[in-house]
Amino acid sequence: MSKNVIFIGSINMDMKHTVDEFPEEGTNENTNDILRFFYPKGTNFLNVTEEEFQDVIHLINSRPRKCLGYLSPLEFLSKKCCT
Fold first, then answer.
1. For the chain, domain boundaries
2. What pLDDT, in 10s, does the model give residues 21-70?
3. Any idea of the CA torsion for 35, 18, 69, 81, to the nearest 10 degrees?
4. DSSP secondary structure string for all residues of 17-79
5. Three-class secondary structure of residue 14 per DSSP
6. With CB atoms counted within 10 Å of each terminal CB, which end of the chain scores lower, N or C?
């Protein structure tokens, strides 16, 4: 059974409470924020070249993450995961 709980307030506002058991949700939200830095809401991805997109993905995957012991995803994969 999931420990995430959704509360519906009396003013019709949804509030989500996340427990520490699911730290990937915070990581996902942080990654989305980083993506929004490069590509704000409303970005037309038809105007983004494959090379530009791959450069952004490389920058994002080179950024250290707390959940990976302050290694970047690239470092984690090369040092911890697949050796």
1. 5-81
2. 555 667 788 888 888 999 999 999 999 999 999 999 999 999 998 888 89
3. -80
4. E--TT-THHHHHHHHHHHHHHHS-TT--GGGS-HHHHHHHHHHHHTS-BGGGTTB-HHHHIII
5. strand
6. N
